[in-house]
Amino acid sequence: MTVIDAAQAENGDWLVGNPTGLQLASALWIGSVGLLILGLQPVLLGALYTEGHVTGDELALVATAEMIAIAIGSAIVAMLLPARNMRWKSAVLLVLLALANFWTAYAGTANALIAARALAGLAEGGLVAVATELIARSRRAERIGGYFVTLQTLAQCALALILALYAVPAAGSAGGFIALGFVCLLSLAVAWTVPDDYADLPKEEHFANVATVPAIAALLSIFCYFMFFGAVWAFLEPIGAQFGIDGRTVGLMVSASLAAQVIGAMTATVFEARIDYRFAITVIGIIAAISSVLLASGPGLSLFWAVVLAMGFILLFIVPYQIRMAITADETRTAVLLVPAAQLFGLAIGPIAASLLIDGANFRPVPEFAAATALASVLLLGVFVLVARRRGQA
Hints:
Elements: H1 3-10, H2 21-34, H3 36-50, H4 56-80, H5 86-106, H6 110-135, H7 141-186, H8 188-191, H9 213-234, H10 236-242, H11 247-271, H12 277-296, H13 301-317, H14 319-329, H15 339-355, H16 365-390
Helix pairs in contact: 1-2, 2-6, 2-7, 3-4, 3-7, 4-6, 4-15, 5-6, 5-7, 7-11, 7-14, 9-12, 9-14, 9-15, 9-16, 11-13, 12-13, 12-14, 12-16, 15-16
């Protein structure tokens, strides 16, 4: 089933408004453009490092600045700006992101790179909000969210392959960022097919809707889960090296994990209505913790492969269920608009927090930290369920 077919099946099943299948697919693509960098960072930032544009520490700052900016951008657009003139907003954000990518291609210093990627992140966050604002208006937001993560991951896989095989070998990191800029400009054609005005959600109280214990617990659970993945992913190569696995093999694992993420997202889309979100989040959190412990135990090559593929599968499998948890926490759906921000902050903060525990060349504390954050996400789910039951929400 294509995204458009799926969207058409959902037509008429909206809290407010009734976008066509094409309009929904267009909004999901605009949001996917905003998250392309998540799958391209290993290729593009790795090329920046290889070419000597940044040191290892500077590379971490570049990546972290962009992810935090994406989270901030998505929260600002979703919470503070009305969902009006979405075609113009999409077009302006795409042009801004294209310019930031072109700036990155020709930035001469590490500070310029950090500034360029921070600007890119703000625009990317705004593009993500174009999709999440519409997803929040569906009665089956978790299913549409599944389509969203599937589309964005497929786009990341395809573009990562093109950049790795053609753009970067031919023109280096600059060629990769220029290609990404042209993707943004080509997407301007799609921007004019998103719904221009989204019907209003009942969110007059704005931040008051998420300043409740259930909403805060739900968002913190999502934040902790993505801290787990961010920590492990950022240090996967040195973790592998510590246990005798070379960088090229780890690179193959990362590529295979992207494919596993697609499979996980598609599987969740099929089964999301058949599995209770509390059960799904609990089981996945436990799998994440066990996988992290196995990484810290000094696994052999086969087990390392299995753990990396499992982590890739569960990363996006959990997203529709996290969306359901956020909707349950706040029926006005203001909290669900902050789900991307919680995810991205987790991805950004996880590596920073884990790096504080690294002792010289010993990276075992990283997966140990990841196991703790995965369990914390499950415990916070427990807090959410207890409080929500008392309020009659769950």
